[in-house]
Amino acid sequence: MGPKKEKPNSPKSPKGKKDKGKSPTPPPEEPVEEITTDAVSALPPGELPGPPPVIKPEFVYNKELTPEQLNQILQLSPNLEEAARCLAGIMQLGDIRFDARNLILLEYCLGTLMFGKNADMKLKQIHVLYDMGHMILDIIRAGNPFADAERTFRNRLIAMSMKSVDKLEEPIFSAWDLQRITPYFTSTIFQHYCLYQYCFTKDHYNITRDERVWVETPMLYPLSLSKTTEELQAEEAARKAAAEKAEADAKEAAAKASQDAFALLAAEAALRAEEELKRKPLNLQEAIEMAVRDKVLEAKKALIEEYEYREKFLIDKVLQMHGDEGTTEAAAPVVPSGKEPPDAAQKPAKGKGADKKEADAEAPKSKKSSKK
After folding, report:
1. Which of 76, 174, 275, 339 has a beta carbon 3.0–4.6 Å from 83's, enabling a disulfide?
2. What CA–CA distance (Å, rounded) separates 243 from 237?
3. SS3 letters across 205-250
4. High-pLDDT (> 70) share of the chain, %
5. Per the record, which residues fall in region Disordered (predicted)?
C-alpha cells in the first residue's frame, strides 16, 4: 500500500494531527496609510485620493451671549458685515471663510438676532429667541428626528407665552409675538431641517490649496506731468471761456450773414426797380402807366423830404428852447438856405391887392378925423 494522500483544504497541526474545535487564525492585517490634510493639499490639481480622508474638525463654539454683547451687535446691525464679524468673535468661530459649517452657524444665529430687531422686540425677547435657536440646533446635532424638535419648540414657545403663577411674572411673548415667531422658524430651520442635520452631523472633506498669482504692476504717472487742483480748475475755466467765445462768434457770424443776405436782396430789388424805370414803354397804355408812376414817385419823394425837413426843424427848435430857458429871448432856429420856416409857410402872402385893401380901410378913418 502506498502513502496516504492528504486533503488539500484540511489544515494540520505541526504534529500532523487535526485541531478539533478551533478556528483557523486569520492572516495579519496590512497597515492602512492615513491620509492627512497636508498630503491632500500636496496632490496636483484635479486629482483626489481614492478613499476619502476622515477629517473630524472640532465643532466647539460659545453659546453664551451677554446683554452688553447683544446690544453691541444690534448697534452694528446697519453694517451686517461688521455685525457678523463681531458675533463670530463672540462665538469663537475663528476664520469663517474656510469653514462652511461655521459660516452656516453664524448665518443662522445672526439671522435670528436680526429678526428680533426688525420685529421691534425687547432685548430680553431677542435673547430668549437666541437661546431657543441654539436649543433647536442642539437637537439637530444630536441626530433626533424632526418630530422631537417640533414638539420641544412648541412646548417651549407655549411656556414663554404663559403667565407664571408661582413667580407672578408676565409672559415673555404675547399672542402677536407668537404669530411672527412661528412663521420665521418654520420657514428657516424647520423647512431645511434635513439639510441642517446632514451638515452638522456628517464629516466634511476639506481641501485647501494656496496659489501664487503674479500681478503685473501698472506704470505710474510721472509726478513732473501732474497738475495741482488750481491748475486743473484754471484749465477748465479756460476751456469754458473758449467754448463761450466760439459760440458768440458763431452767433455773430450768423447774424452778419443774415444782414448781408437782406442787403443783397435789397440791392437786387433796387436794381430791378431802376431797370424797370429805364425800360421803354411798349404801347400807349403802358406809357400812361409809367408817366403816372413817375409823377407819383416824385410827389412821394417830395412829401418825404418835406416831412423830414419839418421834423428836423421842430426838433432843433425844441432843443434851442430847452437850451435858452434862462434867457429872455430865444434865438431863432437855423433855417436851411432855400427853405422857409413852417410858420411862414402857413401865413398868407402879401401882394398889391392886400396893400390896396389896407389903404381903403384906413381912408374912412382919416375922413372922420377931418370932420371933427
Report:
1. 76
2. 10
3. CCCCCCCCCCCCCCCCCCHHHCCCHHHHHHHHHHHHHHHHHHHHHH
4. 69
5. 1-54, 326-372
Name the DSSP class of 48.
Answer: -
More confident residue, 219 or 308: 308
Helix (H, G, I), strand (E, B) or coil at 36: coil
pTM, two decimal places? 0.42
Structural domain spans, the chain? 67-201, 278-350
Residue 93, helix vs strand vs coil: coil
CA pair distance 235, 240, nearest whole angstrom: 9
Nearest to 204 by CA among 103, 93, 53: 53
In the chain, which residue ranges form alpha helices assigned H by DSSP? 37-41, 67-75, 80-91, 100-118, 123-141, 146-160, 175-187, 193-201, 229-278, 284-323, 342-346, 352-371
Ranked by mean pLDDT, which of 7-16, 66-75, 339-348 comes out on top?
Answer: 66-75
In one letter, which amino acid is 278? K
Residue 93 pLDDT > 50:
yes
Map residue 169 onto helix, strand or coil: strand
C-alpha–C-alpha distance, residues 160 and 154, integer Å: 10
Cell digits for 271? 436794381
Q: How many CB atoms are located within 10 Å of the residue 347 CB?
A: 9
The three grid cell numbers given for residue 267, joined into one nine-digit string: 440791392
Q: pLDDT per residue over 174-201, tens digit each?
A: 888 888 999 999 999 999 999 999 888 8
Burial readout 5-18 (b: 16 or more C-beta within 10 A, e: otherwise): eeeeeeeeeeeeee
SS3 (DSSP) at 164: strand
**Dihedral pair phi/psi, residue 237, rounded to 5°:** -65, -40
Residue with grid cell 412663521, as numbered in its chain: 183
70, 76 in Cβ contact below 8 A? no
Higher pLDDT, 303 or 18: 303
What type of residue is 336?
P
Confidence of residue 241 (pLDDT cuts 50, 70, 90): very high
